[in-house]
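ugh ok fine here u go
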Amino acid sequence: MSSRLEWAAGLMPMLLHELNNATQFLGMLHSVHSQDPSAGLFERSAQGLRETGASVQDLGLVMAIVSTAAGTDLLLERRSPRGLEITLDMTVRALRKRGIDVHLLGAARLTSSRDEAMGWELPWAIAASAWAAAASLEAGGNLELELDARCWGAKTPATSELLEHAEAVLDLLPEISFQSSEEGWRFTLPEGWVSTPS
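structure:
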């Protein structure tokens, strides 16, 4: 299975879980409101509705990125500077659910700054590299991913899954460079593709 498909399949349980949470909240709200429309439930649930709406919007973006990475272009011309942040966050949570302790070192949040970085390719490249780097880790394992506006990587030897992923990244995004040694691995971005929010 290609690195794109492994990552996409790996995120499915998280996507289903998050979507189920949103559906349960909306279903509960509808059920209670149907029983007593005068109870003012919608007014009291405004904050929950706002949070659920934002979550569903983020899920839609991640699902479009995942499906496009898997070969069905649902993202089309859609671009989002938040795609990278949302996709990496979902991947980290999926790895933690597998029992892998993930630490993001450096920039806590990154935003895509140029059009080349706002499609599905860069969010997939970064998030799926974390997935590939953790492929050989057992539950209780630890992954420290270094991340900033110029590069991302880890101070651990590259797994075979990561090397396969790097090849796919370089085929798709030849502007990115990749280095690997016994001390670790690193992808380097062109200047200006990504920024750290102020």
